[in-house]
Every structure is written in structure tokens, then in C-alpha cells.
Design goal:
By secondary structure, this protein is of the alpha+beta class. The protein is built from 18 helices and 24 strands. A hairpin with a 6-residue loop joins strand 20 and strand 21. The radius of gyration is 26 Å and the shape is globular.
């Protein structure tokens, strides 16, 4: 008789890695592509993984179904639309499961209900109440490849529901999170994320790795092939994503907590070509003004991009922002309404403009990035209109005809054609540390469900308050090539880390510029800037040793026109005046007086439902 206790003690339990693969509609558009997807899934299994595949509807199937419904009724019932649209994914998963089985591997197709996704009954935008992994794990342990329908579920009355905006990328990322998968592969028609658009810069290089935050700031680069909500979701749960070609067998780009090279200060360059600028000048410098302006824009669903407000003077302020070229007429109408209610102000606008942005997590720890960027633009003869920044992004507004030259100059200046990149010629580097969060599986599943349930809301993940900064403002600088480069080179050579940089549009050959630095560096910065300003006798410098900087962070801030509106309404209701504004793809930052910092932070935390 065998020794059972010994057998139990010596049994070895192997943990098999899990890979989640997501195929978009173009990757399963026809029979050949479905068979190709099946081969990719089988290859992942033969590499020693358990495999879950999330699939979208084939090609243009969803649009075809919507068009077909429109031919029958102008007002299709929401429940029946969910029943109809869910068939697109069901078709895809069934065909892919057949393909896998034909190629000799066991597979099972599962609808959202069969996966274990329970939702409420809000058709077309259902919220997840529960997500179970039991059936998937049972199938995986039986050696099957699980083929899961993307972004659908079922309510408590067994009605089929669809989950709205976010797509199958988010479903795949959520399943990877709760299954604690090693990687979630997004297989698509591109082979990875590049340092910039290779159609514009032939030296553009495919990145082996990029951080979550960098990709979120580079949404106009390539993440167009990856839904931004899934990237933010992956960041929250430390899911490693990989953007891989579904048509070629070669490495893609891994999206992870850190980028491919810790010493590289800039990772990628993005350009938005067709923008126009609208400025509201001589408006009252008092609480509530920004709230009114943003409310007018949000009412017309105008997607505002760069927003710049410099420090006011003489009781008056000026705010400028860029919008897509096609929205200019609506924006001017909204601006006129705002000016009329304010009782004062002038409207100006500029056309034929572009935005060029440098993004890199490394710029948080190097003082010379802005100086290098502005210097290379000066050397290329490119004048800078507006400037906005975040911790890892510097955006400049330039004339559209100079956008190509600006893009190429920045790309070359930071050596982005090479994996090692190039360090700025001025400034110093510092080191930082990352913090990881762990949780139990039960806590993870509950948190994933809670996060998914709010996907349709305006997504604000955090409101940060920084009271350790000072503000410098320099008025009446010459509005000409090289001025910003000279100023920030001097600051960088002194080893001072600049955070926010705000430059509004120039007029009459002059421009104003503000920036924030650590409060401890004020006296040193004064010495450095005074020396530079001797070149420009008309320039006037002022500073505030203690300010409060508030940063509203999240995703979809550009497309969710109501984020800025809610932010500035909350500040107005609290009686807080806004001194500076700067924006990026994932952040809106505002400077207020130091004494109003805590009050403003509490108001924003309450407004966005954060604890």
C-alpha cells in the first residue's frame, strides 16, 4: 500500500502562466485572418501558457448591424439593440473556436454571460456588478483555449447587455487583471508603438517598451490602436500589455510600469496638425471666470486641447486654448457668449497651427529637457507660440508649416532613432523610486468590478496638491526664436527642476511666460534669471515664494469636455481664484494662492468623488 502522506508531501503543483490575447475586428475580418488568429493562440499555448482570447466583432460587422436596424426603425429599443449587436462577437468567437479545433487544439467559445459577467440593466452602457473566473479557469485547467466575447454581459433577468464605450481592449485587460495573467497581448494591424509617426519621420524607431503614463500622454501617436481606458486600467492593476502585429511574427511593444531605458529622458514625439487657437483677453481676474468659459465650451461639446492662462495683471487676465480646426465657428460663438456675460473682454483667434509634444518619464528627473527642446527648435528656426506642460510632457504650439521641421528637430535632438537616446547637453539628472501595490485575489476582483462599473463616468483618478513650489513670471519678453531656450538653459545649468511652464500667445512682438520651481530654489533662480534678463531690458520679472499647485489627473480629459467645467465650477464655488492653467492629455493643473491650497483640494476631491 503506497504511503499517501509521503505522496501528498512530494506532489509538485506547477503554476502555468496565463496569456490573454485580444484580436480586433480587422484581425478576424475573414476566414484567412481567423485561421491566422487561431495559429497565434495555438502558438502561445505550445509555448507553455494557458490562453484566453478576447475577440471583437469581425471587420465592419457592428456598423452593418446598426445600419440594418436603422432600415427598420428610427428608434430601435435599447434591449433589442444589445441583443443584435452582441451577435457580432458571438459570430467571431464561434468561428475562431472552430478554427482552433480544426488546427488540432481543444477550444471553447464563451459569451459574456458564459464567462461570468453579470451587469445591471442599463442597455448599451451596462455596468458590471460581478465578474467570475470559475468557468474560464476550469476550461483552462482542462487544456482548452478559451475564446471570450468582448465587452458584453447579462443582467439578473438573463437579458443580454453590452457595456458601451471602452471596447474589447478593456475586457481583455480586466480579464488579465482578475486572472493575474503574465501578459495581455493586443494583436492589431500595427507592429508596435513608435517614437513618432514613421510616415512623418523616417528615422522613427519601434519601442521595445513604454510606460503606461508615457503612452497615455502619447495618445495621438499610437495608442490610437489601443483604447486609453485599457491603458489606465492596466496601470492600476499592473497588467503588462503588449501591442503586437496580428499579421507578422515579430516582437511588438511592451507597455509596463517603466519604459525601455531609465536614462532616456524623452521617449516619443507627437504632433497634432490641424488646430486653431482662441484667446479671451482682458477678462476679469476673479473666481468663477474660468468656470463660466469652460461651461460655455462644454455646453457645445467642444473638445479643448491646450489650455493656457498666465498670471493676471491690473485685475485682468487672459486665457488661450486650442481646438480642432472644424470647431472654430462653434468655439467663437461660445466665447462671445462668455464675454457678454462677463461684461468685458476681447476675442482673438489664430489659424494654421499645430501642437508638437515631447513625452518621457525621464524628464521628471532631469533639469535640462525643456532647455534642450527649446534650443533645438530655435536652431531649426521654429518660434514657439504657447507652452503647456505636465510632469512628463512638454507641448508647444507652432505654425502649421513648421510642424514637420519641429518634429524632426526634436526627434533628432534627443537621439530617438537609437535605443540609448541622447541626454540633454545642459542640466543634471536625479533618481526617483516607484511604489508597487499588492492585494489579495478577492480584493482584486472586487476592485476590478468597481473600476469597470464607473467606466462610463468622467474618469478622474486623483487630485494632487503640491504646496512646495514657487512661481516665476516674466513679462514683455521678445516674442522671437530662441528666447525660451536661453532662459531655460540658464535655469537648467543651475540644476533647478522646472515643473509647470506656461506661455500664452504673444502680441505686439512681446510675450509673457510663467514657470514653477521648488520653493527652496527661489533665491538661486533669481540670480540665474536676472543675469539672462539683462539681454532684454524691457522684460519684467516677478515671483511668489509660496503657491499651491492642483492637478486633476485621469483619462479622457480632452474628450470629456465636462472635466474642466467641473473643476473650475468647484473652485469658483469655493471662492478660489485661478492664477495659472496648464493641460496635457491626462492632467489639468492650476496654480492658486498658497492660503487657498487646502480649501481648493478639498473642494475638488469632493466634486470628483474621491476619498
Amino acid at each position: 500500500m503506497p504511503n499517501l502522506s509521503f505522496s501528498l508531501l512530494t506532489t509538485v503543483f506547477l503554476i502555468v502562466p496565463i496569456v490573454v490575447q485580444k484580436f480586433g475586428g480587422t484581425s478576424v475580418a475573414d476566414a484567412n485572418r481567423i485561421l491566422n488568429a487561431a495559429r497565434r493562440a495555438i502558438a502561445a499555448k505550445h509555448a507553455g501558457n494557458q490562453v484566453v482570447v478576447v475577440v471583437s466583432a469581425r471587420g465592419d460587422k457592428t456598423d452593418e448591424l446598426i445600419d440594418l436596424a436603422a432600415q427598420i426603425t428610427d428608434n430601435p429599443p435599447a434591449r433589442e439593440m444589445d441583443m443584435l449587436l452582441s451577435t457580432g462577437e458571438q459570430e467571431s468567437v464561434a468561428l475562431l473556436a472552430m478554427a482552433v479545433q480544426t488546427l488540432g487544439e481543444p477550444a471553447i467559445s464563451l459569451t459574456g454571460y458564459q464567462i461570468g459577467i453579470l451587469t445591471d440593466s442599463s442597455y448599451r452602457k451596462a455596468r458590471i456588478k460581478k465578474i467570475s473566473t470559475d468557468r474560464m479557469k476550469k476550461a483552462l485547467d482542462a487544456g482548452q483555449i478559451v475564446i471570450a466575447a468582448g465587452f458584453q454581459g447579462i443582467d439578473e433577468d438573463f437579458n443580454i447587455t453590452t457595456l458601451g464605450r471602452g471596447g474589447s481592449d478593456t475586457t481583455a485587460t480586466a480579464l488579465a487583471a482578475v486572472l493575474e495573467a503574465d501578459v495581455c497581448e493586443i494583436l492589431t494591424d500595427v507592429d508596435g508603438i513608435y517614437t513618432t509617426d514613421p510616415r512623418m519621420v523616417k528615422e522613427a524607431r519601434k519601442l521595445e517598451r513604454i510606460s503606461y503614463d508615457e503612452l497615455l500622454e502619447l495618445t495621438s501617436l499610437g495608442g490610437g490602436k489601443l483604447h486609453s481606458r485599457s491603458v489606465e486600467f492596466a496601470k492600476k492593476y499592473n497588467v503588462h500589455l503588449a501591442v503586437v502585429s496580428s499579421f507578422e511574427q515579430k516582437p511588438g511593444t511592451l507597455i509596463a510600469p517603466e519604459g525601455e531605458n531609465d536614462s532616456q529622458v524623452v521617449t516619443g514625439i507627437a504632433v497634432v496638425k490641424n488646430e486653431v487657437r482662441v484667446s479671451l483677453a482682458d477678462i476679469p481676474d476673479r473666481p468663477g471666470v474660468m468656470s463660466l468659459i469652460f461651461s460655455k465650451m462644454a455646453h457645445r461639446n467642444i473638445p479643448i486641447d491646450m489650455v493656457v492662462q498666465d498670471i493676471g495683471a491690473g485685475g485682468l487676465a487672459e486665457v488661450s486654448f486650442t481646438v480642432p480646426e472644424g470647431d472654430l465657428a462653434e468655439t467663437l460663438t461660445a466665447a462671445e457668449e462668455a464675454i457678454k456675460e462677463l461684461g468685458s473682454g476681447r476675442i482673438q483667434h489664430g489659424t494654421n497651427l499645430s501642437k508638437v509634444s515631447a513625452v518621457g518619464a525621464g524628464m521628471k528627473a532631469h533639469t535640462g529637457v525643456a532647455a534642450q527642446m527649446f534650443s533645438c527648435l530655435a536652431n531649426a528656426g521654429v518660434n514657439i507660440g504657447m507652452i503647456t506642460t505636465s510632469e512628463i510632457k512638454i507641448s508647444v504650439q507652432v505654425k502649421r508649416e513648421q510642424a514637420q521641421a519641429a518634429l524632426q528637430a526634436i526627434h533628432a535632438s534627443f537621439g530617438l532613432d537609437k535605443p540609448s537616446g541622447r541626454q540633454p547637453e545642459v542640466g543634471v539628472a536625479a533618481k526617483g523610486a516607484a511604489v508597487a501595490r499588492t492585494s489579495t485575489r478577492a480584493e482584486l476582483e472586487r476592485d476590478v468590478v468597481a473600476r469597470l462599473s464607473s467606466m462610463e463616468d468622467i474618469v478622474v483618478s486623483d487630485v494632487e496638491l503640491d504646496t512646495a513650489q514657487a512661481r516665476f513670471t516674466i513679462r514683455h519678453l521678445p516674442d522671437e526664436v530662441g528666447v525660451a531656450a536661453k532662459l531655460f538653459s540658464a535655469v537648467a545649468e543651475g540644476g533647478i527642476m522646472v515643473d509647470m511652464i506656461v506661455q500664452n500667445v504673444g502680441k505686439d512682438g512681446r510675450t509673457d511666460l510663467s514657470f514653477t520651481i521648488p520653493a527652496a530654489d527661489v533665491d538661486q533662480c533669481l540670480l540665474l534669471t536676472r543675469e539672462v534678463l539683462e539681454s532684454w531690458p524691457s522684460a519684467q520679472q516677478s515671483f511668489d515664494r509660496h503657491i499651491a499647485k492642483l492637478s486633476v489627473k485621469g483619462i479622457g480629459l480632452r474628450t470629456h469636455t465636462g472635466v474642466g467645467q467641473k473643476m473650475f465650477q468647484a473652485l469658483a464655488a469655493a471662492g478660489v481664484n485661478v492664477q495659472l492653467i496648464s493641460t496635457s492629455e491626462i492632467q489639468i493643473s492650476a496654480v492658486v494662492s498658497a492660503e487657498n491650497g487646502q480649501l481648493a483640494h478639498s473642494a475638488l476631491m469632493k466634486t470628483f468623488g474621491l476619498s
